[in-house]
Amino acid sequence: PRPILLTRHGESKDNVRGRIGGDTALSDAGEIYAKKLSNFIEKRLKSERAASIWTSTLQRTILTASPIVGFPKIQWRALDEINSGVCDGMTYEEIKKNMPEEYEARKKDKLRYRYPRGESYLDVIQRLEPVIIELERQRAPVVVISHQAVLRALYAYFADRPLKEIPHIEMPLHTIIEIQMGVTGVQEKRYKLMD
Ligand code: F6P
Questions:
Q1: Which residue's CA is the closest to the ligand 1 atom numbered 10?
Q2: What is the pLDDT of residues 91-110, one digit of tens each?
Q3: 52-88: per-residue pLDDT in tens?
Q4: What is the pLDDT of residue 180?
Q5: CB within 6 Å of ligand 1 — which residues?
Q6: With contact defined as beta carbons under 8 Å apart, do 89 and 24 qualify?
Q7: Per-residue confidence (pLDDT) for residue 66, from 0 to 100
Q8: Is 60 noted as a catalytic residue in this protein?
Q9: Which of 86, 82, 89 lies closest to 101 in space, CA to CA?
């Protein structure tokens, strides 16, 4: 059975500042995670010659993948983080203060709420369809290095979690979720590589 390994990028500079969206590089902790992840992957997938590493087109996932050698890397736009439109680069506090109606609307219906000039979770779920089709087709292991909202949606698909839960699924940094699809269903393991 071929595993799918899901992980968020290492902590980014924007994560440290609490800013959403953006395209910043990794923090020092994020750089350490990238190295730990590469050690883990090289051990875990040692004899898996056909394995591949999928990232988004954003720096923080590409940089997280960069220490990993020996496997092909593929960038998918569909794996980019939810587009927060006019709120891109803001903190949740700033949104609450400057755009209270937007803040409240999202709180009320996080699944359907669409950022002005951006996306909703439902939009993200829809754009992930080709990625899911390709993941299901793979015979070899795949490591997916992506973002919080996108990974919630991907994880929910494989773990068979209901739509309405998706925006609220816990998706911590610096943790690998390994999914194995077998005849008896889906098995899951988690590896927390750092605090
Ligand atoms: O804060 C990190 C981040 O990936 C943001 O870029 C993104 O907007 C957010 O998480 C998605 O999480 P939530 O839907 O809970 O705001």
A1: 148
A2: 999 999 999 999 999 999 99
A3: 999 999 999 999 999 999 999 999 999 999 999 999 9
A4: 94
A5: 15, 20-21, 81-82, 84, 147-149, 167
A6: no
A7: 98
A8: yes
A9: 86
Catalytic residue among 17, 39, 48, 60: 60
Q: Which of 9, 19, 127, 174 is catalytic?
A: 9
Q: Is 9 a catalytic residue?
A: yes
Binding residues: 8-15, 60
Binding-site residue positions for substrate:
8-15, 60
Q: Could you tell me if 177 and 155 are in contact, meaning their C-beta atoms sit under 8 angstroms apart?
A: yes
Q: Is 18 left (phi over 0), alpha (psi -120 to 50) or beta?
A: left
* Contacts within 8 Å (CB) and 24+ apart, 62-65: 63/9, 63/10, 63/25, 63/26, 63/30, 63/31, 63/34, 64/7, 64/9, 64/10, 64/26, 64/30, 64/33, 64/34, 64/37, 64/145, 65/34, 65/143, 65/145
Under-70 pLDDT residues of the chain: 1
Annotation marks residue 15 as catalytic: yes
Give ipTM to 2 decimals: 0.99
83 flagged as catalytic:
no
pLDDT at res. 82 = 99
CA of residue 15 to ligand 1 center, whole Å: 9
